[in-house]
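User: Predict the complex.
Assistant: Input components as received:
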Amino acid sequence: GTGTDNDLYINQAIVFIEDAIQYRSINHRVDSKSLWLYRWYYSRTCQWILSLTITIILALAFFEKPSSLTITSDVRYRPPAWNPPCGLTESIELLCFLVFMVDVSVKSYLIGWEEFWKNKWLVAYILTLVVSLIDWIVSLSFFCTEDVRIRRILRPFFLLQNSSMMKKTLKSINSTLPEMASVVLLLAVHLSLFTMFAMLLFARTKDGQQDKEWVGYFRNLPDSLTSLLVLLTTANNPDVMIPAYSKNRAYSIFFILFTVLGNLFLMNLLTAIIYNQFRGYLLKSVQSSLFRRRLGIRAAFEVLSSLREAPANAQQSYVSTEALLRVLRKVEMDSRCKQAITRSLKMCSCDQLSAAQFQKLFEELDKDAIKQHPPSPEYQSHFMQKMQFVFGHPYFGYLGNVVALANIVSICVVLVMDADKQPSERDDFFLGAINCFFILYYLLEMLLKILALGLKRYLSYPSNRFDGLLTVILLVLEIATFAVYGFPHPGWRPQFMGLLSLWDMVRLVNMFIVFRFLRIIPNMKFMALVVTTLLDLVKNLRAFAGILVVVFYAFAITGIMLFKGAVVPLGNIRHVAQFLPSARRGADYLSFGSIQIYRKKLHGCSSNCITWWCLLHLLSVNLICRWAKIYFVAWWLISSVIWVNLFVALLLENFIHKWDRRCHREPLSDIEYQRTVELMFRDVLEEPTEEELMEKLHQHPHLQLCR
Amino acid sequence: GTGTDNDLYINQAIVFIEDAIQYRSINHRVDSKSLWLYRWYYSRTCQWILSLTITIILALAFFEKPSSLTITSDVRYRPPAWNPPCGLTESIELLCFLVFMVDVSVKSYLIGWEEFWKNKWLVAYILTLVVSLIDWIVSLSFFCTEDVRIRRILRPFFLLQNSSMMKKTLKSINSTLPEMASVVLLLAVHLSLFTMFAMLLFARTKDGQQDKEWVGYFRNLPDSLTSLLVLLTTANNPDVMIPAYSKNRAYSIFFILFTVLGNLFLMNLLTAIIYNQFRGYLLKSVQSSLFRRRLGIRAAFEVLSSLREAPANAQQSYVSTEALLRVLRKVEMDSRCKQAITRSLKMCSCDQLSAAQFQKLFEELDKDAIKQHPPSPEYQSHFMQKMQFVFGHPYFGYLGNVVALANIVSICVVLVMDADKQPSERDDFFLGAINCFFILYYLLEMLLKILALGLKRYLSYPSNRFDGLLTVILLVLEIATFAVYGFPHPGWRPQFMGLLSLWDMVRLVNMFIVFRFLRIIPNMKFMALVVTTLLDLVKNLRAFAGILVVVFYAFAITGIMLFKGAVVPLGNIRHVAQFLPSARRGADYLSFGSIQIYRKKLHGCSSNCITWWCLLHLLSVNLICRWAKIYFVAWWLISSVIWVNLFVALLLENFIHKWDRRCHREPLSDIEYQRTVELMFRDVLEEPTEEELMEKLHQHPHLQLCR
């Protein structure tokens, strides 16, 4: 009937508008039941459950068998980590798989079966689930004693497929791969030619004294290749050339040539290529988001215009204001935007909306909320007004900065004076008294500012919130200290009492004071620019960070499987222990420091492996060592070379946009800076044309438009 | 009289056109004698003498007292270097100073006294000369025994002031300094805040076992600062965090945070800022060169139009063709251009030239010579024509590449097989026979190609020249080997004979073969692009390289003066010896490797200085150590951070331009690529307007134009 039809149209419009708000694709089923399922699937609860499931399945690696949940990382002192009984983590895993299965079926159903086969991500999702389940069954049937667990390596895929940003970024990276591969090929040619040169230059001589270089670094082909590869990372830079250099200064020419060509030219060329490929990346991604938004709004307009209530107009389609109001009431969106749209809809006073008017109404979505700070309180008394003027003035803030600086300097002086004192000689009186004074000043400053600005206005500035929070923490700590240890007096160094010793308390207070000093940032123009750039960058980097997590995770799990049992805790294996404790314990890979450790120890491997392990395991370990080398080189290439260059490219892109804008609109920037990427590019974005939108709409697999 | 006036005008026009060709400023005296002096000063001989003088005065550092002209760099085995007698280098220096004095007087005279005082470079030049001369006199009056020689540090100034490109680049760098300083300030804040945090975190504890981190890296303020500064260079990366990390894994958060903020964000921000500032640098410099050229041509037009022979025309000025021909005959310029201009002048058949026509004639200067390869010989015989087709075909070149690759692979195989053999076990027969065969093939290939292309056409391709030269060298080496050692046969390993042993000869041949393999580069499209980018870059980098030489030189000389006698050759001072031999010997600084050595040993200084030297010299050496630290930090900042970033910026700029052009004009790029920077930017350059040119001409300090 007409009523159900109308209801359907209204529901479609609601979903399309929500799609537009969230920049989602509108290519999903649009019948009543599917729409209900769609709204349920994209409801906050459902998405939250999905995210939680992904987090849980990724976090399982920390608790599973080679767990690394110990305080120390030193294999010698470390107590055996807690190993969960067989079946515990596995059952949690099964629960996660069940959630994923529901997820994939809903998703596949919603986009329709024809579309499903075109969507490679969904097919891969199902394959991953199937493989994981089979692996899970195998694992349980071996009572968790099997070595190879493929499903662990596959886990990060669940994170990947759930984020459209990450999928988009991956596509971008993928399109850069051919150029990157060319440079990597060039690097390989460079490396192999220089390796041959090196082997010819630093050959074994008859005089054993003369060939230190050969013994140390160029004994055979793998050794030479490793030496030069590590030289490319600059990790063994002066050491590798010292024996040759002390024999003849001219040998340094070889190493200089290699480093200049490899490090200075080819490596930076990689940066240039990646930057060149990514120059338009942000703009393109924002442009496609804009297209999705306009498309969603347009689709809503089209379905609403097919409502029977609307008068049939052959020339142009219209939407009645009433229908739109009905839709708006049910749409989930930011309340500020909803109010603004409703208000302008009522102000317009027309009964029908054309497509252009309809689109224009929703432009409110693109606008940034102009933040209005609440007004200061108005005092009657003349004295209070003067107080308000004095303590509301920026100079009072600057005075606060100067005092914070003085506090930092005093702490620094005490630290320098106490540097070489024994803990028993230390007297905390001076620092205690000074900090007490400064914290009182901070409290006073906060109270006076609240007095001048009013609590609401005070809290509306992020810098004040930061300031106030830290002041309160400092006050609490100070009161706790006094409550336990009494007021500062000469010789104020009581023994350990309660939770923390006095010394620890004082240190904690000092750390918070140093941290509080960051409040100066917004007052320094250039610093503020840099910090806002960095914050923007962090936002744009979420997708990259996600991909990085995926790569880290996969490498960590592969590392666990490859190096399982490779380290045998023998007498003095300190060196090996430093090298591989974390390769054995997977979760450590997730720490950034490890990248560097592996980069540094890459060369260590070739020498230590051979001396230590090859004595132990002879052939089998030699094989491991070779695998380890390949593993670490891959790790270095991906994490250090490619990822860092991607990061630099994004930073350049962001910073140059920001910088240009700062130069162009100097006067505006003081008022309120626009935060989102969409707004950063607003001037250069192209509005999609009517034809593009309609063409896309007619290609919709499930929506049949009347005209 | 009119005749002398006319001669003067002709001479002025000649000089202005030469200025235009060389992109020189036209703001110099224009009377007859000055013009003669000007042409003499800018003649090739004079400029060559000046360059030679600068080279000599810079090269003196290698021979002066702490000279480093020894083969080994190891202080233990090194024989005492040759020290020139007092007065030898000093008298050469005096000669150089005399040349510079002539140079500065001619330069000052030519630009005129009023202009002289405005030109800071000239004033600085004179000051430098005066200071150098005074220092020279002091030096001689002490019989060369004085320690501080200021004039050595001033020497690179002579290089700097002689190159207009370097002065321009320096100005550009100078304008980037405020932004760079901001980031460096930010880095300093970052470093100091984290140092305070570190000192609070890794404080001394009562339990001596627990504070390894404190003992090793954070004992006092300078130590902590150094540790974190070195962490910023990633030189001590895993080591500095290992003690804390093995105590508690959570401590790694501190180091990760520091590295991510400092290394990933702030350091790359520096790259972004420098790139942003240098984005327009190349374009701007090319634009100003174009302006100088147009201005010179226009000035020549104006003076020629004042010739009495020309008919007075109130509206517009004209130049007679005849006068221009007279000027052209005397101008020193590329003969190809001169011919082209004369030809088009004769073809034009008009008697008088307007300013626009005049300017247009000289646009020939901007054009690139389109290289025409000489034609192949035309053979009559059908067989020879077939031969020509076969061996002139690109596939024959590809076959040559494949053979070269096969040669490389065979050498590689032999190297791998021989890697662990004793020199006495080695048999050179296999390699000798193979190489003999391959070199014969190379010779054959060269001859056949010459047959097909003709000698002239063969030599007109750079890749063929490279190929042919190496083939000839290989042939000569091979013949020499056979002459001395006979033909290869099993057990071909005779003892040392003549200049080089057989083994060395074979190695030399192999190196040339590896080097010859580079001929594949032009055949791989992406490689060719990269290599041409690099070649362009090298051209644009000359100014940067000059500034780098200036900085290296100044640092080296400062290093010699600072660390003179700081190293006392005691028993086992291997560590110190590795660290400072080259700081003592200045010329070593000029090698790139040293940068890295100092970067690495920066931290070594803080620990080794204190353990070794402070035992020896107590207070005085401690002072030296602190100075050394400041010196090395300055060195790191300038050479590693700023210069490398400048390099990256230039590379990005060059590469992105090149890449864009490649994409836009794919079909053209095959024929002939344009080499000069001017041509690279031709599409985006703006022609200066008539008004700009005339305004500039009227500001000329010495030229009075009639109208």
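Residues 171-369+674-706 of chain A form a domain with the Helix Hairpins fold (CATH 1.10.287.70).
Let me know if you want any component modeled separately.
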